[in-house]
Each structure stands twice: as C-alpha cells, then as structure tokens.
Request: fold
Amino acid sequence: MSYYFRPPNSREQNLYIIRTSIDDLGYVNFTNSTLNSTAYTSPSNVFLPPGFFISYNNTSYTIFTVDYTNAKYEIPPTINIQVKDNVLSTQQPYYASIVSVSATRATFYIYSLRIVNGNITPSFPLVGQVDNNLSGIGLQIQIIGRTTTGPTFAIANQGWTYVESTNPSNDTIYTAIPVGTNGVIPPYDFTIGGSLGYLGGSGNGGIPNTAALQNYTPAEMMSNVNNYYFFPIALSSINDTITMPTPTKFGQEILIVLNQNPNNLILTISTTNTTLTSVVTMQTEGDTIRFISLNKDGVGIRWVKINNK
Reply:
C-alpha cells in the first residue's frame, strides 16, 4: 500500500509511504529470482507502486533487492525491514540487515546467529530448490521518503501545502486545487457543502476558540479586527464608537452587525483609517456595514466601505 502524507511534526512535505507484507520467501514463490505478485499478502501487490518488485541474487549468501523506482523519491528514503518467522519451528530467529539504500532501490540480506564453540557465528540462508532455507519465513517492509511528484511537489503545486514559521501561530496551509466540503465535488475554487459558520477567539472577551461565536463589545471588536471576519456587536448601556484600527493585510474583508441594542443606543463608525467622508451611525438591530482593506488613491492601505447595490 502507498500513500502521501505530511506529518505535523516534520518539516518534510509530500512524504510517500510504501508498506508491504510477505508471508513466505520460499523458492516456489519466486520466478526467475523475482518474487511472484501473489506472494504479497497485506496489502496485495495492486496497492504497490507500478513496477515494484523484490528479487534475490544467490552467491555465498542471498542478497535481496527491493526496487521502488516508480515511487519517484527525491532522495533516498528511510526503510524498515522486519523478518517474520516462527521461532518455535526454526532453530534460531532470523534478522534483516540493510546493505544499501538509493532513491530507486535498496539491498538487504537475511541472517541468523548461532553460538559455535562459544563464539557467535552468523548463518546466511539461501533461496533455491536444494537450499530452501527461507520457506515459511516472511518480511514486513515499510518505506518512507520525500517524493518529487504527487499532491504538494507536483508541477502545479497542487494539494495541501503546510508552511512552517519560527512562530507556530504563524504557520499556514494552502492549496492550489479546488476544495469542496461535506463530500461535494467543487465546481468552484472553494465550494461549501453543508453549513458555514464562525467561531470566536480567545481575544473575544476571553471566549475559547472552540466556543460558538458570541457578541463583541466595540472595544473587543477593535482589538480583534485583524483576526476575524464576522463581528456581531452588542450595546448595553451607553452609546459607543468603533474607530477602525490600521489594516495590516490587503484584501481583508470584515462584516459588522449591530446584533443587540435593547436600549436603542447609537453605534458610531468613525472615519479614521477608512475612506468614509462622514461618520456612519447604526441603531436598528440588524444594521450592517462591510469593509475591505485596499490601497486607496495612493494614500495607503485603508478600510473601504462595500456598498450593496
């Protein structure tokens, strides 16, 4: 089986895993020194990269080669090889030792250890009609490495790409392919199947990030304007004013809604850092105003009011 992934604790992206299990390295499971496709048991060979194979070369001992050329690893991967044996039915357990690893193949051999005349002596089993020492002995193989093809390192840079920074809170993730949610095949760059909602943040009156979005006071909204998009405002006992902070990003959009105003107070939006020519007042629950941050008239980045027509 093979698949791509990007573990959150690794700086490498587009890691490609191959895993396979072989139950029997007996001679009858080889044809012209290459392991038959039916010998791959978990998963079957159809889940392996095209052209993947294991072969052997008998000399004074057997050298196995595992070829994964079509995985297209960028650099030599990391390989783990474990021998599957039944120590109750063999004279001694078997071990695997890796000889070489390249970006396309690896070589290894299988051996056992005996104590002969008080000395530890290695023994190297052979694969053959006469010396069929590995009958009933299997392998567990796992290969992992960075590949030049696939979701994140393809030419179009498609797939999810995770970008780390020196500050984990500034890490980003992005994709160049259309994204659909809730099982929807996306006809647009981003297609929402199901619901869309917004959460509050720790700066929103101390509400945890996992809590449902609650109302903001004007002061809470101003301190979080560069963190969120949707701001339902609640007025309690006095008229209040929102003075928009200087925007820090181009193209950021925010929506302010007067959500609760039981005392019929007035919320004023000042002209500071905006393109408003005069203040805007909001008094009726449900009144809204939208801004987007743009470089307006060469003056610099400011909040531009969006008019719905």
Q: What stands out?
A: The chain has three domains: 2-146, 155-195, 197-306. The radius of gyration is 32 Å.
